[in-house]
């Protein structure tokens, strides 16, 4: 009986301490919040989810950078294009351009932010919707009239 009581107390203690965020988690959440509010962050992606087909694991090196009022995208593209640039273009979603209509909205549950903006480059017009969670994990939805939509998952690069 005493061993059962001891195990129950240990279990309750373990469960109650897991709800309280550690100092490291709090510092990480603050760093993510600061970067989002300052419009200065990099999201490294490791998975692509095309509109048609399976999810694709990506190798190191693909990212989306937000710097003040501009964005730099180096992302692959898997999907159907309704139109293609003359000469075929570079492929993928690759550009450095200013953002339009940049909006940051806190999530309703208070666990992160929704970021929306548009980018117009010579060959394509993109709409980005980014879900950023307090721990830095992110989901990037990219929509274009000229291509099928695609989603990327990754993490915010932290110091």
Whole-number average pLDDT?
83
Number of strands: 10
Radius of gyration, in angstroms, nearest whole number:
20 Å
| N- to C-terminal distance | 49 Å
Q: Strand portion, in percent? A: 35-45%
- Shape summary: globular
Total helical segments: 2
Low-confidence stretches: none
Sheet having the most strands = 10 strands, antiparallel
- Please identify the structural class as seen in this structure: alpha+beta
Q: How are helices and strands ordered from N to C?
A: HHEEEEEEEEEE
Helix content: 10-25%
What are its keywords?
single chain, 159 residues, alpha+beta, ten-stranded antiparallel β-sheet, 2 helices
Could you explain the architecture of this structure?
By secondary structure, the protein is α+β, with helices and mostly antiparallel strands. The protein contains 2 helices and 10 strands; from the N terminus they run ααββββββββββ. Strands 1, 2, 3, 4, 5, 6, 7, 8, 9 and 10 form a 10-stranded antiparallel sheet that branches. The radius of gyration is 20 Å and the shape is globular.
Question: What is the strand and helix layout of this fold?
Answer:
Blueprint: H1 2-18, H2 23-38, E1 40-50, E2 56-57, E3 63-67, E4 70-75, E5 93-98, E6 100-106, E7 112-120, E8 125-133, E9 137-144, E10 150-156
Antiparallel strand pairs: 1-2, 1-3, 1-10, 3-4, 4-5, 6-7, 7-8, 8-9, 9-10
């Amino acid at each position: 009986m005493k061993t059962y009581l001891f195990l129950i107390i240990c279990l309750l203690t373990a469960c109650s301490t897991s709800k309280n965020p550690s100092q490291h988690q709090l510092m990480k959440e603050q760093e993510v919040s600061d970067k989002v509010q300052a419009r200065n962050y990099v999201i490294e992606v490791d998975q692509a989810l095309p509109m048609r087909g399976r999810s694709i694991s990506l190798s190191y090196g693909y990212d989306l950078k937000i710097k003040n009022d501009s964005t730099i995208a180096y992302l692959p593209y898997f999907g159907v294009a309704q139109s293609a640039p003359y000469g075929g273009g570079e492929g993928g979603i690759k550009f450095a351009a200013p953002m339009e209509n940049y909006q940051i909205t806190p999530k309703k549950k208070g666990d992160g932010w929704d970021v929306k903006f548009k980018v117009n480059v010579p060959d394509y017009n993109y709409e980005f919707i980014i879900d950023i969670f307090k721990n830095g994990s992110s989901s990037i939805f990219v929509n274009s009239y000229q291509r099928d939509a695609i989603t990327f998952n990754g993490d915010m690069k932290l110091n």
